[in-house]
Sequence to fold (209 residues):
Amino acid sequence: MFSKVLILSPHTDDGELGCGGTIAKLVEEGKEVFYVAFSACEKSVPDGFPKDILKREVREATKVLGIDNDKLILFDFEVRNFPSLRQEILDTLIRIRNDIKPDIVFTPSSNDTHQDHRVVMEETLRAFKGCTILGYEQPWNNITFNTTAFIPLEERHIDLKIKALMCYKSQMGRPYFNDVFIRSLARTRGVQINTEYAEAFEVIRWIIR
Fold:
């Protein structure tokens, strides 16, 4: 139903955390996958790491998942300040829409509590009126999550997701980077659709052509 895929990641690593297994599967199937990160979170980089470390790490991580370097787009919006940059982010999304013309967009869910994630999701709705939009899951930010779509995955896809996340050396202190957690969540979603692994998504907009 679609061949051109756009992953919208408010911060570097959100895309891999929310749908890294799906990215690996779509690339494997020959889909054209674009990854956009709006912030490399320089203000939030842990002590001991260079301020641009997340830019290096996202390049390594998306390469593991099979995304071509020319399909990785990085911006420098200030972390935790997206609400005050809403119009600029919308304008950026409209340019991306016109340049890429995706068939499907993956973005944070509508129940994500992080202010930057919410802005990206809300402006995605405005910018991509003609696209199917799925919201990806990040349990540490979601008070609730509507599991209204599932993408079945094989173990190799989860292995690639974990391998990609391990590229983020600067983020290893965060509990959701734990490989046991990543695999367990994928198993839980798989059980819900009678398969070994899956990632779940919220259907924000579904267009049948």
Observations:
- The helical segments are 14-28, 53-65, 86-100, 115-127, 155-165, 179-192.
- The CA atoms of residues 40 and 54 lie 6 Å apart.
